[in-house]
Write a structure and sequence with these properties.
With 291 residues, this protein is of the alpha/beta class. The chain has 9 helices and 11 strands. The protein is globular. The protein starts with 8 loop residues before the first helix and ends with a strand. It binds flavin-adenine dinucleotide (FAD) and NADP nicotinamide-adenine-dinucleotide phosphate (NAP).
């Protein structure tokens, strides 16, 4: 009966290992605790486009709910009090994984580290999403304009992949303006994949228009800021649609503060009323970054 009631060495080892795993989980990856209001997601995919832009995918906790177009605060488990920054979910609300499209700021408190993530790494995400670039903040209409510059395309990458968008609008016009052509690649790739997908392709055919322009490469076929292309009428001429009209058109805007200010003034001058979550309107705006 010797040893009865006493643990074998192997059982003790297994129990110690399990306790260590549980302890590591409580402490979080990198030895820092993961607070209750944060999800720890695992990176599954990373793709770099330029020295300033990349996209990545992560797992999605089943409990995480958001509306296409919203943003959440993300960070890295690299400090007791990590830096969190606002990020639009670029994937649609129905997707089982999450996609983000990100800038790389050389000395940026978050992105100097975030740009180095690899599959298997952990990204932290606060549990509460928010934002005004949602279909609920717009009154019904027939044509939806999604006007973006730089990483401002991220919330629209979510909205164009949501079938609800096509239930609510006959035409969806996504504009994306960047300094150089390489910065347009994420959007071009995304729209091409949608068109190639048998189910989605059928839904968006003839209804999703992707209109790109650049401002600092004279060789690209379409030149100019979106403000200029709206004011001189080239956008509408190229698309074969009438100019902006609050009776039929709805507008979402995402870019730098300067771009938002100029496009907001342009919409107000054409009689559009700004909307919000608690009061839907004819256009909505959100910063792509704070400056
Ligand atoms: C509502 C909202 C949603 C956002 N969604 C995204 C997103 O989906 N993808 C994304 O990359 N960023 C997004 N941002 C910006 C993001 O929150 C961070 O600013 C960015 O990740 C850089 O973080 P950082 O700590 O490295 O540098 P920060 O200290 O945050 O920024 C340093 C400087 O870099 C420049 N900068 C920051 N972000 C950008 C950007 N996106 N494009 C161009 N210049 C920039 C600005 O000049 C800024 O002052 C969003 C910001 C807001 C307010
Ligand atoms: N892109 C780069 O190569 C680069 C490199 C180093 C640092 N940065 C810095 O990173 C920050 C963000 O750069 P970014 O290129 O992502 O964003 P950005 O400066 O907002 O430019 C993105 C696009 O928006 C256009 N734009 C700017 N202001 C506008 C306005 N008021 N109305 C309509 N369109 C407008 C730009 O045209 P214009 O070209 O006419 O301005 C450009 O085509 C800036 O502070 C920049 O100095 C950028």
């Amino acid at each position: 009966m010797e040893g009865a009631g006493r643990e074998s060495d192997a059982a003790l080892e297994a129990r110690t290992e399990r306790a260590a795993d549980a302890d590591a989980e409580a402490r979080g990856v990198g030895g820092f605790p993961i607070p209750d209001n944060v999800y720890a997601e695992t990176v599954t995919e990373v793709e770099h486009y330029t020295d300033r832009l990349f996209r990545f995918r992560t797992t999605r906790s089943q409990a995480f709910r958001f509306r296409s177009g919203e943003f959440a605060m993300i960070g890295l488990p690299n400090a007791e009090r990590p830096v969190y920054r606002a990020y639009s979910m670029a994937s649609p609300a129905w997707d089982e994984t999450l996609e983000f499209f990100s800038i790389k700021v050389p000395d940026g408190p978050l992105t100097q580290h975030l740009q180095k993530i690899k599959p298997g790494d952990t990204v932290l995400m606060r549990k509460k999403p928010t934002g005004t670039l949602v279909l609920d903040a717009l009154l019904p209409g027939s044509r939806l304009y999604l006007l973006s510059t730089g990483t401002g395309i991220a919330p629209f990458a979510s909205i164009i992949r949501d079938p609800e968008t096509y239930d609510k609008f006959e035409q969806v016009i996504l504009t994306h303006t960047c300094r150089i052509p390489a910065e347009l690649r994420y959007g071009e790739q995304l729209v091409a994949e949608m068109r190639d997908d048998p189910l989605v392709g059928e839904l968006v055919e003839g209804r999703l228009h992707h209109y790109t322009s650049v401002t600092r490469d004279a060789d690209f076929p379409r030149q100019g800021r979106i403000t200029t292309l709206i004011e001189n009428g080239k956008l509408f001429e190229d698309l074969g649609v009438p100019p902006l009209d609050p009776a039929t058109d709805r507008v979402m805007i995402c870019g730098s503060m300067a771009m938002l200010q100029d496009l907001k003034a342009l919409c107000l001058a054409r009689g559009f009323e700004e909307g919000a979550n608690n009061k839907p309107g004819q256009f909505v705006v959100e910063k792509a970054f704070a400056d």
